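Weekly structure sync, notes
Attendees: PL (lead), two postdocs, one rotation student
Agenda item 3: pending single-chain targets
PL asked that the sequence for the first pending target be pasted directly into the notes so everyone works from the same version. It is reproduced below exactly as submitted, 327 residues in total.
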Amino acid sequence: MKLINSTILLTSGLLLSSAAMAANYQNCSTSGCRVGGSTWVLSNYADTKYPLILAHGMGGFSSIAGIDYFYGVGSDLTQNGATVFQTQVASFDSSYIRGEQLLQQTKQILAITGAPKVNLIGHSQGSIDVRYVAGMLPSQVASVTTVGGLNKGVPIADAILTLEKSPVGSVFAPVITAGINAFFTLVGVGSGHWYDQSSQAGLDQISTVGMAKFNAQFPAGLPTTECGQGSSVVNGQRFYSWGGTGKVTTLFDPSDAILTATGLVGPSEGDGLVSKCTSHIGQVIRDNYNQNHFDEVNQVLGMVNVFGASPVTLFRQQANRLKLAGL
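Predicted structure, written out during the meeting:
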């Protein structure tokens, strides 16, 4: 009996160990992938058919000092059976440049996993990047999910571009731009990746003019009405989106003040940066969660509205939605 029990315990341990290793959470760059740690698999709720790729927004990163941009999301998804890759592109640049960087990483992930397709999930400018990749790899992208997507551009970008053309702005803009580029070069290095930065190109990209040009080239999933839903399936790819309309969601989060200030420019209904209608693409899961733009990825450090929907839960539910759709 002792021998049988020991065998059962040993076998169970090996199975759990194998499951944990299979769920290794990867951080990838154009130079390859590195293991970001393993975790126990507790369920198969988020066990999608194809790997999940998370794409960060403007000013973002994959992981710095153990703190992920998608804070707590990757580990939760792997605990629930998903294969997850967190990517990193230039913190600041156009989505043609960032999109190409993400495209190369996506190809690596396809090669590493042997999967025929992937599911892309992008936040903020990452939503534009994943749309670019989906357009470039139509047969190898199963789905595109955008969170707080900048699909029509944002008023604050237009306001800054206008300010740059003023006499004062023309003097200070080059200095500020150089400082931002230098700082986020260091952010990239801190996250283990070196990229040239162009905050000006990033700003141009997320302006209404910049996004109008992009949308003409990559229209899949876009609504045909001002605040409607787009086609949920285009050329075999599924499109989903969600967003928030919160600004001050917790008194402890310093980002709330920033997003309250930026939210004064443009429509009142939005997450402090993106209007709820701008976030629409494909099947709109919901556009008015009580979350601001940083809350949507469980930042800063999980300081979000405790009485609303958990950002981590929303990503887990989306993975399950993809799983049930056969993706």
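Discussion points:
- The longest helix spans residues 167-190.
- Confidence is low (pLDDT under 50) at residues 1-24.
Action: rotation student to compare against the earlier draft before next sync.
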